[in-house]
Write a structure and sequence with these properties.
The complex is a heterodimer of chains A (472) and B (338). Chain A has one domain. The longest helix of chain A has 36 residues. Chain A is 70% helix and 8% strand. Chain B has one domain. Chain B has a two-stranded antiparallel ribbon with strand order 1-2. Chain B is globular and about 55 Å long. The relative contact order of chain B is 0.15. Classes of the chains: A mainly alpha (472), B mainly alpha (338). Chains A and B meet through helix 3, helix 4, strand 2 and helix 14 of A and helix 3, helix 4, helix 5 and helix 12 of B.
Chain lengths: 472, 338
């Protein structure tokens, strides 16, 4: 592997997009949860929900800020490192990106100000409205960016045009049917899957922090209520994403068969049913999966509903058009394993919550504290599988990644920017964890003084009442 | 008006919106180290606290719209100015981060580190915007395949650097007037002095840039022969600039701010007139220049984008008004502040 501008640009994109994608699932998922909490406060008037909304807004704001800071890089990087790609797709892809800016970013960033700084400046209803708007904005943002990415996976609604400018010929994709671009064959599946991944992320994050408080015996009532809301989100997300993943895989089988074959390490099409690999090491040289553990016929059954119907294998695709097998296979499988961990936690959580013993079981609570990791890993790896599995194409079937890189950018320049991003992201990650940790340790500040005076509802209510009277 | 011209004008509107709005918060950043005490530094930072993020979205949307409407210009500029853009990104990230983290710890070393970063990042970002404008006007080495063939150092010529300094001076002045509006008491009295000093700095930079432009950069005025009405904008701009010291003197800071905003809009407008119909001028051969026609997306896409813009822009303006209304008045420190 040569350290050329192409390889370095791919590395940089992977680094920056994976760093960035730590934050969107948190903000999308947490945004929905905040809407529920604040909605419950407005409905019931229970101050606990207000305390929750205020506390989670602080966590949300921190994540949002870094998400925005790292997101600007993504928007510019198409032009800086992938200029040839930008010329090819601008007519189609640029529209989705611009729509994201106009419809989503202004909404999010504007109302975020009210959300974070406006508690004492606007009425509770206006504040709730702002929370809804920020949450909607983050969902709109997901919609447009997944539309753009899905078009790269399953291009539709365009035609190829050769443009002659100053004696040079540029081939590019131009929109023929806007709605066919937006609702290309994979958009709905991939968007659903992405949003459900965020729902899980939000739920598990809230459960993790709440479980930590329960273990430390702090803010008991607050933590129990937060945990329950988090559990509800995690349960719905974890159950629904299985269904969504199934339909998405069926979609990949039709639209990008070599990608599915790479996910599953499926080399030979054969004339019978295909097995589902549970474990193994795909070996491109010998064209088989080493150390494989497989369930015969299951892949065929999942794809076609028929155990004996063949599934297209990698043998139908020229060797040069195979994606990197080990990375694709393992990112996909690890994502599934992580889902498995989440599912076990959810089932355990629901059962013990129903039995009423959940909040006393310290070992289980510890598992939930650590349970924030699997959805983070799964969200990352799902995208790794989707993007690496698309290789060697940057736009499926139309443009190869190696032909998409900027012509005027030199390897040393990319190396310099990778070092720069590496350093700043590392620092950012350290400071982010540090601040997040201190905010979580600090807890909901409204409750701090109440606890000092002895816990219990009346003390909390007194503290809250006192704060209100002092006003701003 | 054809679609290409519509998009050229809309890009100008987005750029002007960005320069006016993020201009004052970048200006506050440039002036940040001018106050010493922790309390005053927090006041400065919180005067833009709820607003800077929304202001920066104008830049992000400008980038997205450029990608969609003029993909060749987006590709050529962003890959050609590679290192400059990386430094800009570095500055914008550092700025966001320093505001977010500065007051999260009591330690003086921690706080002065982020104070310094905030100031440096704001200054560097502003300088780079100016350098980019200067280079766009002069033209850069673009070959027949629309690819930039020069080097990073080619971008650091005297004229673009002067425009960069001019941008720093303009935003510093714009930011100081904004701060005067948002502060009170003894701090406000000191900022009154800043307004005069930054205006002086701005005036010198303005005159130097104008003289340099007229004397040595023919691209700046070549188009005025075709569009003589553009001289009217120059005149209005001079009036707006003259109104800034007048309004400061009469203690009507809001008018000074409006004048300064109008002047920034006029500069963006004149920049657009100087460029038209080019987006990126090739200094190698005018035939290689990227124009609003040869660099554009298909008419169909421009039409779709126009509908999106018409649907979206009223909302954008409505949010902007609502947010500025909610956060009107003097800056106060509360427990939600930075």
């Amino acid at each position: 592997m040569e350290l050329d501008a192409l390889f370095l640009s791919r590395l940089q994109f992977a680094l920056t997009v994976m760093f960035h994608y730590l934050f969107p699932p948190i903000t999308i998922g947490l945004g929905m949860i905040m809407v529920v909490m604040e909605g419950l406060y407005l409905r019931t008037g229970d101050r606990h929900y207000e305390t929750m909304a205020r506390f989670w807004t602080k966590i949300f704001a921190l994540n949002f800020a870094i998400g925005v800071a790292s997101g600007i890089v993504m928007e510019f990087q198409f032009g800086t490192n992938w200029a040839t790609y930008s010329r090819f797709v601008g007519d189609v892809f640029g529209s989705a990106l611009a729509a994201e800016g106009i419809f989503a970013f202004f909404l999010e960033s504007g109302f975020l100000a009210v959300l974070v700084f406006g508690w004492d400046r606007v009425s509770p209803r206006m504040h709730f409205f702002s929370t809804v708007m920020v949450s909607l904005g983050s969902i709109f943002s997901a919609i447009w960016i997944v539309v753009a990415n899905s078009w790269q996976q399953t291009p539709a609604g365009h035609h190829l045009v050769t443009q002659y400018v100053g004696g040079e010929a540029f081939v590019r994709a131009e929109i023929v049917d806007f709605w066919a671009v937006v609702f290309n064959p994979s958009t709905v599946h991939r968007l659903t899957h992405t949003l459900l991944g965020a729902v899980m992320m939000g739920g598990f994050l809230v459960m993790s922090v709440s479980a930590y408080y329960l273990l430390k015996r702090r803010y008991d009532d607050f933590a129990r209520k937060s945990f329950t809301i988090g559990l509800a989100f995690a349960a719905v997300g974890t159950a629904a994403i299985l269904v969504s993943g199934h339909f998405q895989a069926q979609n990949v089988a039709v639209t990008q068969p070599p990608k599915l074959a790479a996910f599953e390490g499926h080399f030979e099409t054969g004339d019978g049913g295909a097995a589902l690999q549970l474990f193994g090491w795909p070996d491109a040289e010998s064209r088989r999966v080493r150390y494989g553990v497989a369930v015969p016929g299951l892949l065929s059954w999942l794809v076609h509903g028929d155990r004996n119907k063949p599934v297209q294998g990698l043998d139908q695709t020229p060797r040069e058009d195979w994606p990197p097998l080990v990375l694709t296979f393992w990112s996909y499988h690890l994502m599934l394993y992580m889902w498995g961990v989440c599912a076990v936690l959810v089932v355990l959580g629901l059962y013990l919550r129903w039995r009423g013993t959940l909040f006393e079981r310290r070992s289980v609570l510890w598992a939930f504290v650590l349970g924030v990791a699997p959805p983070v890993i799964a969200n990352q790896l799902g995208w790794v599988a989707a993007e690496v599995g698309r290789q060697p194409w940057i736009v499926w079937g139309l443009l190869r990644t190696r032909d998409a890189v900027s012509k005027s950018v030199k390897a040393e320049e990319v190396l310099a920017s990778i070092v720069m991003f590496g350093v700043i992201y590392l620092l950012l990650a350290i400071v982010w964890l540090y601040i997040l940790d201190s905010k979580i340790r600090q807890g909901p500040t409204e409750l701090e003084s109440a606890e000092a005076r002895g816990s219990g509802l009346t003390a909390v209510a007194a503290a809250l009442g006192g704060r209100k009277k002092r006003g701003r | 008006m054809d679609l290409n011209l519509f998009w050229f004008i809309l890009m100008g509107v987005l750029l002007a919106g960005y320069a006016i709005l993020d201009g004052f918060d970048l200006g506050v950043g440039i002036l940040h180290l001018g106050v010493r005490s922790d309390l005053e530094r927090r006041l400065l930072m919180n005067s833009i606290g709820p607003l800077w993020d929304g202001n920066e979205v104008w830049l992000v949307t400008f980038g997205g719209a450029l990608f969609a409407a003029f993909p060749h210009a987006y590709a050529t500029a962003f890959s050609g100015f590679y290192l400059a853009f990386m430094v800009l990104l570095f500055a914008l990230i550092s700025r966001a981060v320093s505001m977010e983290f500065r007051s999260k710890k009591e330690s003086p070393a921690w706080r002065s580190f982020f104070d310094f970063t905030f100031c440096a990042a704001s200054t560097v970002a502003t300088l780079l915007f100016g350098v980019a404008v200067g280079n766009s006007i002069m033209g850069i080495k673009v070959g027949p395949d629309f690819e930039y063939v020069g080097s990073f150092l080619d971008l650091l010529r005297p004229y673009p650097l002067l425009v960069g300094l001019f941008a720093v001076a303009t935003f510093a002045m714009h930011g100081s007037i904004y701060l005067y509006l948002k502060t009170e008491g003894e701090l406000q009295q000191r900022i009154h002095g800043w307004m005069w000093r930054t205006f002086g700095f701005f005036l010198v930079a303005y005159l130097l840039t104008t003289i340099y432009s007229l004397a040595a950069v023919p691209n700046t005025t070549a188009n005025f022969a075709n569009h003589p009405w553009a001289w009217g904008v120059v005149l209005l701009n001079v009036l707006a600039i003259a109104n800034i010291p007048r309004a400061i003197y009469q203690h009507r800071p809001f008018y000074a701010f409006v004048s300064s905003a109008c002047s920034i809009a006029a500069f963006v407008f004149l920049f657009g007139v100087a460029l038209y119909p080019n987006l990126i001028v090739s200094s190698l051969d005018p035939a290689y220049s990227l124009t609003i026609y040869n660099a554009a997306s298909s008419p169909k896409t421009l039409r779709i984008m126009q509908i999106i813009a018409f649907l979206g822009m009223p909302f954008v303006l409505a949010y902007t008004v609502v947010i500025y209304w909610v956060f009107r008045g003097k800056v106060e420190l509360g427990k939600f502040s930075y």
